[in-house]
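G.,

No rush on this.
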Amino acid sequence: MKNMTQKSKSSNKKPKKKAVALRYDQSKDSSPVVIGKGLGLLAEKIIALAKENNIPIHQDDDLIEILGRLDLNQEIPPETYIVVAEILAFIYRTNKNFNPPT
C-alpha cells in the first residue's frame, strides 16, 4: 500500500519547468541557435537570468518540446522557423518601443 501512495503522490506533482534560450545574430547565424536549455532548477535559473537582463520571455509548451530536444549550439529546425520568426518580430517591435529609464 505504501508504494501505491508514493506513485500517486508523484503523479500529482507539477511538471518540471523547462526553458530554452535562443540566440540569433544575423551577422553570423543562418537561423536561431540554442545557447541554453534546462529542466527544473536549471530552467528557473535561465528564466531568472533572462529577466535580470531584460530579455523577453515567451511561453509555448509545444515549441519548448521541439527545441528542448536540440543540442546546444544547434540551429533550430526549419519547421519552427515561422513560429520563432513571429516571436523574434514581436521582440524586435518591443525593443524598438522600449525607452530605458535615465
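When you get to it, here's the other one too:
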Amino acid sequence: MEKKKQPIYTDHARDQMAYRRITEKEVEFCLNEPEIIRPGERNTLILTAHPNGRFIKIVVPKSKPRVIITAAD
C-alpha cells in the first residue's frame, strides 16, 4: 500500500490556519477529497471541501500540489 506524502505548510498557511482555527486534518481532507478544484491566480489551484460540514478552501501551486500556500473558511 502506497503511503500518501504529507503536505508542506508555508508560514502563511500556518498563520491563517491558526487565525481561522483550521486544523491540519481539515486541510488534508480538502487536499485528498476536494469537491471543487478551480484555477487560482499566479499558477495556483483552489480546492474546496466541507470536512465535518465546514466550508474550507486551500490554495496550492499547480506544480507542487502538496504545498499548502494558504487556507480559509
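The chain is about 25% helix and 30% strand. Residues 10 and 41 are 17 Å apart (CA to CA).

Enjoy the weekend,
O.
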